[in-house]
Every structure is written in C-alpha cells, then in structure tokens.
UniProtKB/TrEMBL annotation:
It holds the Pfam family Methyltransf_23. GO terms for molecular function: RNA methyltransferase activity; S-adenosylmethionine-dependent methyltransferase activity. The keyword Methyltransferase applies. Belongs to the methyltransferase superfamily. METL family. This is tRNA N(3)-methylcytidine methyltransferase. It comes from Capsella rubella.
Length: 307
C-alpha cells in the first residue's frame, strides 16, 4: 500500500506550485504561447517514429520499472469479471501491461505501440516475468494516425453496440452475430492511456481519443494518467525545447505535453466521454544530496463511454 499511497497522495496543493512557478522570472518561458515556435512544431509531425529509435537505444531495460501502483489507482482492472478485455495504448516496454497480467489472470490484454522495437521489449519483459501469457496479444499501431484493427472492434461492432445485460457473470455481450465471428471481440471493456497521450502531437490528440472511444463497449472505462502542468519534468526544459503551448521536444525527437485538468476534461468530453474522476496527483520528493524539493504532478482520470 505504501507505493500506491506515494503516487496518489496530496503532498501539496497544485495552486501552491502554480504560485511558485508563475512568480519565478527564470521560468517565465513556460507560461506563454510563443508564436515563433509554431512552425517549428510541424517538422516533428513528419517523423512518427522517434520512439523506434528510443527503444532501440534503450534495449538494456534500464528504463523498465513496473507501475504496480496502477492496480491500486485503478482497482477496476483487478475486480473485473471473467472474459474482460483491455486495450493498453502505447505499451512501451510493458511497464503497465506486466502488473496488470500479474494482478488479474482473467483479463485479456491487447497492447499496441507505434514502435515495433517497443513491442519486442514488452514481449521480452513479459517472457522473463511470466511463464505463459496466453491472454496477452500485441500489435503495432499509431492510434493518432490510424484506426485500431478490426479484431479489436470491427466497423459493424463500432456502430452496433446493442448490449445484452442478461448474461450475468459472463459480462456484457453483443447480441447480434458479427460477420467476423471469433476474430471480433466486439469492443473492449477498458482502455488504458498511461503516459501515452503526452507523446502525441497536440493537433492529433482529439482524433486519437475518438479512436479510443470507438473501440470501447458502452459502459467501458478509459483509464488515464499523464504529466500534469508544472511537473518537475516540464520545468527542466530549456526555452529552445518549447515547440508549442505546453509542448516540448526532447533531444531524441520525442514529444512531451503537460496537461491541466481543463484541457484533459475538454479533450475527453468532446470525444463523447463522461467524466468519472479527474484530479491532480501532487507528490513531493526530496533530493537529499542536493537538498532540493522535487514537485511531481500527474493527472489522474477515469472516463466512461455512455450506454
């Protein structure tokens, strides 16, 4: 429980950090949209695979750390019934998928990433940790630019989610026969977006979220966690790394956006979701060697597809 408490506690109020940042002249470049950077952002939209290079360089597993706290943050992933399906979008090296597979043997996990190298790392990490993972399936997909494959939720299922609630413990099922038969799962019960949306160009975020909405069953949940506004990571970026309002580019070409609650709320409700939970997680860590406080901010959210 200690690990979960660390990630979901309120060590400080976000307004406290906001006041510090907005009154520090050295951080003023983070506060305003800089028009001259608008054109710069376009070149980063042309290369969809900086993450391919990232995972190739970091194949040793140095960046792998299981996010076990997610099972406490999102207990639905543990308590869901048999035959539940989850789509993990942007699985990276498997740091989200692996604790879910450990925590629930009954859930089928579909995991995608825009990087084929990431999928290789995920499979390696799962094979090292779990003897057999027959309930795990991965595929390559950039959800900000293309649709999920038909076997996640085919076109007919996307438009015909007529649910039968009389199935009892076996869960909700589609009450018509799909032409894809056993290749179609009729939509997923959960979608997880864990530190994924922030890596998508801001212009593509609405389309990406609508794609997630399309493959969820009615009543299904999208579970969200990502970088919050004024997180320590944001404040470390130098002015020249700013390519748009609250969007930055790292030296390796990967992008990072930092969300406020209003932005997240609008993105998901505009796509058709109902807000269930939305808040900032504010955690203070101490760098004892430097004697400095480090303020971390993450956005935690749950959004439901209406019936």
């Amino acid at each position: 429980m200690e690990e979960a408490a660390e990630y979901h506690s309120k060590d400080f109020e976000w307004d406290f950090l906001k006041n510090i940042v907005e009154n520090d002249p050295s951080l003023s470049h983070h506060l305003h949209h800089q028009q001259q950077h608008n054109n710069d952002s376009q070149k980063y939209l042309q290369d969809p695979h900086p993450w391919q290079k990232f995972h190739s360089r970091h194949s040793s597993g140095k960046f792998f750390k299981e996010r076990r706290y997610l099972l406490k943050e999102f207990p639905e992933l543990v308590s869901c019934g048999e035959n539940s399906n989850l789509l993990e979008v942007g699985c990276g090296n498997g740091s989200t998928v692996l604790p879910i597979l450990r925590g629930n043997k009954n859930i089928t996990v579909y995991a995608c990433d825009c990087s084929s190298e990431a999928l290789v790392r995920t499979k390696e990490n799962i094979d090292l940790a779990i003897d057999t993972a027959e309930n795990f399936h991965s595929f390559c997909c950039d959800f900000s630019m293309s649709e999920f494959p038909d076997w996640v939720a085919c076109d007919r299922c996307r438009g015909n989610f007529m649910l039968n609630h009389s199935e009892g413990s076996e869960g909700m099922r589609v009450n018509y026969k799909c032409s894809l038969n056993d290749r179609c799962i009729g939509g997923v019960d959960f979608v997880t977006l864990i530190f994924t949306l922030s890596a998508v160009p801001k212009e593509r975020m609405p389309r990406a979220i609508k794609e997630c909405f399309a493959v969820l069953k009615p009543g299904g949940l999208l579970l969200f966690r990502d970088y919050g506004l004024y997180d320590m990571t944001m404040l470390r970026f130098e002015p020249e790394k700013l390519i748009g309002f609250r969007q930055y580019v790292r030296s390796d070409g990967t992008l990072s956006y930092f969300f406020c609650l209003d932005t997240v709320r609008k993105l998901f409700t505009d796509a058709g979701f109902i807000e269930v939970e939305l808040e900032n997680c504010c955690v203070k860590a101490v760098n004892r060697r430097k004697g400095k406080n480090m303020y971390r901010v993450w956005v935690h959210g749950k959004f439901e597809k209406p019936f």
